[in-house]
Design brief:
The protein has about 160 residues and is α+β, with helices and mostly antiparallel strands. The protein contains three helices and ten strands.
Length: about 160
């Protein structure tokens, strides 16, 4: 009999204070929205829209690739010095005003002891015109096996908005 009375009393307390229940529900809803927004921001920082056809047929203009960054909010997800031939990277080119997404085709040691990458778009006839230092590397495309993780065509919205 005692347990039934306690349960009934709790139910009566909740029924008698709907404002308290509404505040609790609103708090949970706000926290849910904050979590969704934070997850969206983190995911968006790990996606890159392909703006040219230089890597066809691996991925096409308008595709979105999943990336790991060299510096994400102070965290090093990948080390630029650990890259290998065959990796697809995004780097700040000295010969082009926008970041470039191309494959590493060879690795060289400079006279300064620094590591440099020779890069090339899979659809391009020649290697890129300048070597890429580790400090220029921004990100690496995530691959499963030897296949990059690609979300086809969804980036066309971004290209349209940016006028590219």
């Amino acid at each position: 009999m005692g347990k039934r009375r306690k349960v009934s009393q709790k139910k009566a307390d909740a029924d008698s204070n709907p404002a308290e229940e509404e505040k609790s529900s609103l708090g949970r809803e706000i926290i849910t929205y904050i979590v969704i927004i934070l997850v969206g921001i983190i995911l968006a920082q790990h996606l890159n829209v392909v703006v040219s056809g230089s890597m066809e047929p691996v991925f096409y203009r308008g595709d979105v690739v999943v990336i790991e960054k060299t510096n994400f909010l102070g965290f090093q997800e990948i080390s630029p010095s650990d890259l290998k031939v065959g990796d697809i990277i995004i780097y700040n080119a000295t010969w082009f005003p926008e970041p470039v997404i191309h494959r590493i085709i060879s690795i060289q040691k400079g006279s300064d002891g620094e590591t440099y990458y020779v890069t090339k778009g899979d659809n391009n006839p020649q290697a890129d015109p300048a070597l890429v230092s580790t400090s220029q590397v921004q990100a690496k495309v995530v691959s499963i096996g030897n296949q990059p993780v690609v979300i086809p065509k969804i980036g066309y919205i971004t290209l349209w908005i940016r006028g590219l």
